Amino acid sequence: MKHSLFILSVVCGMCCMSFCSCRFGQSDGDEDGEKDSIGVDSLGLEELDLYEEVVIPKTADEVFDDFLFSYISNASFSQERTVGSVNELAMNDDDAAVMIYEREDDLVLQKDTTLQEVIVEQIDWEQNTIHNYQFNKKLGQWFLVAEVDDELSGNPNASFLVFLKDFLSDSLYRHESLQLPLHFKFYSEEDDEVVDTELSYEEWDELFNDLPRLDNVMYNVDYGQSLISTNRKSLLLKGLSNGLFMKFHFGFSDGRWHLMEVE
Fold this sequence. Notes:
This protein has seven helices and ten strands. The chain has 263 residues and is an alpha+beta fold. It has one domain. Strands 4-3-2-7-1-8-9-10-5-6 form a ten-stranded mixed β-sheet. A hairpin with a 2-residue loop joins strand 3 (129-138) and strand 4 (141-151). The relative contact order is 0.17.
């Protein structure tokens, strides 16, 4: 099936990323199988800041997502763009971020160059708290200006977040929360069109297990999207460094949330 090939491509892509990360920093042996004789201590690696090799693009401040990637990828840059005694956002560049939204029209906010404030919510499932990092744009540049702790129960998405906590961490609960057959849309390069098909539970489970883990801490980016619906939520999963982009559409019925469609 075409969507099975898509799932396979996701698996292969992530395996390649994992392989590359394992290879980084290793030196190849010579023809006799001997490794480089230069010791680690002689290189002074304990003082080497690999983040300094990252070049910050001049356009980093135009779109917030570009700024955020630069911020989490470069230690010096993040220090320069964090005001006063505010703690820096400790997010890795291989982490995934999400955008919880209700209207497809709100997705354009990700590319809105006129935004002046964005909140990155660090959701801690174990503590049931949300640590809000507030970014503001000043004279055309983004800065982290404040941080505030809130209880998860006080968030506009509280009901949905409580559901997500179990959905992401409990396989049985996740299975019970699927609206089967689960609709799955994806772009087929072979046919050059969007294919609308269905996933079995086994295929869904395979796909889910290869996605970035969100069941410890999740980062939700609030661009100012409207959040007023009580029966429909969508979650956009995006990798800041690898181009991952998937949508999960949920609906509330019969007293609980259900996953209805993936694309």
